[in-house]
Specification:
6 helices; 7 strands; about 230 residues
């Protein structure tokens, strides 16, 4: 297929076919997750499950690839689905307008996935997502914190046990250790967080720029494709 001919030069026809027959679930379609979806779609992943309950809003425009003035007010999963099908009309896109939390975990069959990408923000959701993936022996890669960061070159791919600096990774290490999980593939930044310039916002919301979550999302997608 000509659309993926350049990809085939690197991964071979067999690799392209494997991607076409793969089903990947992306939990969280925001600044990081949106770029994961973009790269997986352009890599020819045949089936994508997109999970998020947010709608596109004005504050998303500075960093989320699915956020444009024409998509404002749309559910992120629906905006992402339209974009995927515009890139690859042969793709199958399943959307779930829900947040992944312990109470919604039963809605998903992890045995059906070839890979899971964790791009959600809530610690309880992330922990449950890892637990479900480990229970079903489903490959998973988890994004750590991308907020209050300015250096896209500071992202690393590493096991959770090898992460440093990232406060979210520290919490995840502690909580997963309590649950008997010592290993988790992650993308994390070893940049020290930047303090918001507006003192009134410190501790309330995270600052963000276009190129940081994009870098994290593309790293996540690259690991999925290579694996």
């Amino acid at each position: 297929m000509e659309q993926f001919s350049r990809t085939a030069l690197l991964v071979g026809a067999e690799g392209v076919d494997k991607l076409k027959n793969a089903r990947v679930a992306v939990f969280g379609i925001g600044g990081v997750g949106g770029y994961v979806v973009e790269a997986l779609a352009r890599s020819g992943v045949g089936t994508l499950d997109l999970i998020d309950n947010d709608k596109v809003c004005l504050s998303n425009l500075n960093r989320q690839i699915i956020a444009t003035h024409s998509t404002l007010g749309e559910y992120k999963v629906e905006a992402a689905k339209k974009r995927v099908l515009d890139i690859n009309p042969a793709a199958v896109v399943n959307t779930y307008k829900t947040f992944f939390l312990p109470e919604t975990a039963q809605e998903f069959n992890f045995f059906a996935y070839d890979y899971v990408v964790d791009a959600i923000d809530t610690v309880t959701g992330k922990i449950q997502l890892v637990m479900e993936a480990k229970r079903t022996d489903t490959p998973i890669i988890s994004s750590m914190g991308a907020g209050n960061k300015m250096d896209p070159s500071a992202f690393r791919v590493a096991d959770l046990s090898q992460t440093k600096v990232c406060p979210l990774a520290r919490v995840m290490r502690r909580e997963l250790k309590k649950r008997g999980i010592a290993s988790l593939k992650t993308v994390y930044s070893d940049e020290q967080p930047v303090s918001p310039k507006d003192a009134a916002q410190i501790g309330r919301i995270c600052g963000s720029v276009a190129f940081v979550p994009a870098a994290a999302g593309l790293l996540l997608a690259g690991e999925v494709v290579k694996d």
